[in-house]
Amino acid sequence: MSRNVSIKYAIDWTTVIYYVVLVVMGWLSIYGASYNFDQSGILDWDQRAGKQFIWILTSVAIAGILLLLDYKIYNYFAFIIYGAVLLLLLFTIVAPSSIVPDIKGSRSWIVLGPISFQPAELAKIATALVLAKFMSSYNYKLKNWKDLFPLAVLIFIPFALIVLQKETGSALVFVAFLLMLYREGMKGLVLLLGVYAILLFVVVIKFSIITLQPDGGTLGIVLVMGIIVLVQLVYAFFFVKNEKEALILLLGILVLSGLSILINNWFKLNFNYVALGLALFSCLYWIFVELFTRFRKYWLIAFISIGAMIFSFSSDYLFNKVLEPHQQIRIKVLLNMEDDLTGAGYNVNQSKIAIGSGGFWGKGFLNGTQTKLKYVPEQDTDFIFCTVGEEHGFWGSVLVLLIYWLLLMRILTIAERQREVFNRIYAYCVASILFFHLMINVGMVLGIMPVIGIPLPFFSYGGSSLWGFTILLFILLRLDASRLERMN
């Protein structure tokens, strides 16, 4: 049996059907989002829908080529592909503006005549391949921190290069690889620490504007120090079952806090330093307890707490010095620190209006008033989902999300049936990337996630995005097809 015939029977056609359905629905949504009454039709090459149709045709051609290539090249050349993409990212940073123009403050698009593409889309694919290659090497096991370190480096390098392009949204997608690492054996503590850091960052930023007294500290720092101590107590009470030590610490914290409040009546204190002192006292207490009990996990909670204190005090610097002004405003709007309905909060506000106006059944295809009057900026790219909500209502939105869910479940099924470790890890990378894009994009359209500007897979307008997701998915389908092809 020839290879082509084998591929035809070995390819997972269910996944291909989901892909085609999402691409067609996305194309129709782009037409609905960009439609104007002077437009001749959906294949008007001067309009967004017509241009997207060309990208769809080229994506189909790319998918066909990927399926015809030998599946072994993805494993053999993973590091070469990764290195080439890193050079491309570096080139994007240093290239002249005639090739890499500044677009909305970001230098992330390479423009060659009528064609423009974003190397960050290729970086996700290359990183997925190199992680699969490294983790499938002989005798590799993800058991401890030293095993995690080289993987963190492989993820961090493209992440840092994309941040240097001032394309923070695309860089944050690399966080999705943590989901794959967790599935492959990474300790859940890493994910918990990530959630912990986000919680501390949000509390510091949201409540830092509330001062306790003139030059007396802010509520944000006091609260996060309280959270750090609370986490220690929960750990001692419920995880290591040392109620006695936890109660002694709680009593000590309460006594010292009461004394601080009493002293403040005569000598005005900076409660930031008081809270920091109490948190440091709790860490020293656990180290002291460890010296007598020889229970090493007390060192862990002490060092995590010290790291949390350093992170909390640096959050203000990260927010004000690292993030761009428009990113700061978006976070403030998300945290209800500012309304800014005519500025940074405008997109989300108009998006929610569009989705809400669709009701249960929607206004009908091409009948969305918010869409037609162009109230929602970027409505055919980052905010394409609001077009679905307005034109097709609640049921249409649920249908789209259901198809995405079916696609993700199918990819997970493909991952679980792989005999090769390389194929399995790559499959989980694909699922993680798609899930992250879906969660963030739909979340920001609904106003429950910050607006970071990442596309909805297979839906948003743009050839770079569609090409990237097509390559990502069809490499997986080629690897999966090899499972049955070798049997033939």
Q: Would you give an account of this structure?
A:
With 488 residues, the chain is an all-alpha fold. The protein folds into two domains: 3-187 and 342-487, no CATH class; 210-331. Helices cover 70% and strands 1% of the residues. The chain contains 20 helices and two strands. It has helices at residues 3-10, 13-34, 48-68, 72-76, 78-94, 119-135, 145-164, 168-172, 177-183, 188-207, 219-239, 243-263, 271-293, 297-322, 325-334, 346-357, 369-372, 384-416, 421-446, 463-487; strands at 110-112, 115-117. The chain is globular and about 80 Å long.
What labels would you give this structure?
single chain; 488 residues; mainly alpha; 2 domains; two-stranded antiparallel sheet; 20 helices; 70% helix; 1% strand; globular; disordered N terminus
